[in-house]
Amino acid sequence: MCSHNLSPLRGKLASPENAYAVAVQLRAASGTEQFVVSTGNPMQPFRVSDEPPIGQERFLALVA
Prior knowledge:
Layout: H1 8-13, H2 16-30, E1 34-41, E2 44-49, E3 58-63
Antiparallel strand pairs: 1-2, 1-3
């Protein structure tokens, strides 16, 4: 699917700001540090994980 065919809502929900907010919530709930990474995938451009970036992913933020 082409990125220009994605809905505006997906763009808002898949923003780096939203990923950071999710990371803060996960950090508070789990007590473990959370990484926000850029995936390069238009369907999931940002990812939150308790693991560091892998492969071609880029580190954006650490919520410690």
